[in-house]
């Protein structure tokens, strides 16, 4: 819709310029046109027409100038207003207990998030028959987009009648690939999210919960988000867990939840243990 408005504004600006050029030409020839229309050929008689033509030209010129200034100030004012007051997109989140809450995200951030979600969708479609690669590259994309320090994707499985989530993709995860990491539904933060099916955003990670190992030593991120990968709000297929040293913004939360929906659709048709 914004593209349509922008196109229409350009068209009307061009028409306005053309109209101004035509009026300017008509004003330039107004004195001669009046003389011809009245059949005045005598130079002295034509001179009497001149003040009338000048007055009309002056008032028309002032009118056009004021209109042009009004348009310019409108454009400048709109830019200032938008710069200081970004458009907001309001979401209404509905909780399982029936309560709702409104979430405001500025339009620019929403557009960026939508663009990144489309990139993830394309990524998933390009590796549709390699779920392991889908999970790893999606996690890498998430962490890169929100500048996270560490991340993990768990996929739901069942053993002996019990439900578990098992680590299938890691980002800056210090656990060896050969080591299995599993949590029963309800066990720990990730297991609880798998059980409840609700996103958890934590601004103070418990000490020692996650550790980032680098050449500078071991450090612990402060902020954490854990989002369930759910199928139609009924079945948990996995969990996305991302930790960051920077505060995780609301638009990042919405972005991760949308990516979780994409992964849910993929895992529903391409289970991790049934690669084609």
Task: Tell me what you see in this structure.
This protein has 276 residues and is an alpha+beta fold. It folds into two domains: 2-84; 107-269, GAF domain (Beta-Lactamase, 2-Layer Sandwich). Helices cover 52% and strands 24% of the residues. It has seven helices and ten strands. The chain has helices spanning 2-28, 30-38, 43-84, 107-126, 131-146, 188-196, 250-269; strands at residues 88-94, 100-106, 150-159, 162-171, 182-184, 200-202, 212-214, 217-219, 223-231, 235-244. A six-stranded antiparallel β-sheet has the order 5-4-3-10-9-6. A hairpin with a 2-residue loop joins strand 3 and strand 4 (162-171). The longest helix is centred in the first third of the chain and has 42 residues, at 43-84. The chain is rod-shaped, with a radius of gyration of 32 Å.
């Amino acid at each position: 819709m914004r593209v349509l408005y922008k196109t229409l504004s350009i068209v009307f600006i061009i028409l306005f310029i053309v109209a101004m050029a035509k009026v300017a030409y008509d004003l330039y020839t107004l004195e001669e046109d009046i003389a011809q229309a009245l059949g005045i050929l005598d130079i002295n008689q034509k001179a009497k027409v001149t003040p009338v033509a000048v007055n009309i030209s002056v008032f028309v010129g002032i009118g056009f100038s004021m209109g042009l200034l009004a348009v310019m100030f409108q454009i400048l004012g709109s830019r200032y207003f938008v710069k200081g007051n970004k458009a907001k997109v309001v979401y209404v989140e509905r909780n399982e207990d029936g309560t709702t809450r409104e979430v405001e995200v500025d339009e620019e951030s929403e557009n960026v998030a939508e663009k990144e979600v489309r990139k993830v969708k394309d990524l998933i479609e390009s590796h549709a028959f390699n779920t392991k690669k889908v999970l790893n590259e999606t996690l890498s994309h998430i962490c890169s987009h929100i500048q996270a320090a560490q991340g993990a994707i768990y996929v739901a499985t069942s053993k002996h009648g019990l439900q578990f989530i098992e680590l299938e993709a890691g980002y800056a995860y210090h656990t060896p690939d050969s080591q299995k990491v599993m949590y029963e539904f309800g066990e720990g933060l990730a297991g609880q999210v798998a059980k409840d099916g609700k996103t958890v955003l934590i601004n103070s990670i418990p000490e020692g919960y996650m550790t980032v190992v680098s050449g500078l030593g071991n450090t612990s991120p402060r902020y954490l988000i854990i989002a369930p990968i759910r199928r139609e709000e009924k079945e948990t297929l996995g969990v996305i867990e991302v930790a960051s040293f920077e505060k995780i913004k609301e638009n990042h939360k919405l972005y991760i939840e949308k990516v979780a929906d994409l992964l849910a659709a993929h895992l529903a048709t391409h289970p991790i243990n049934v690669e084609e």
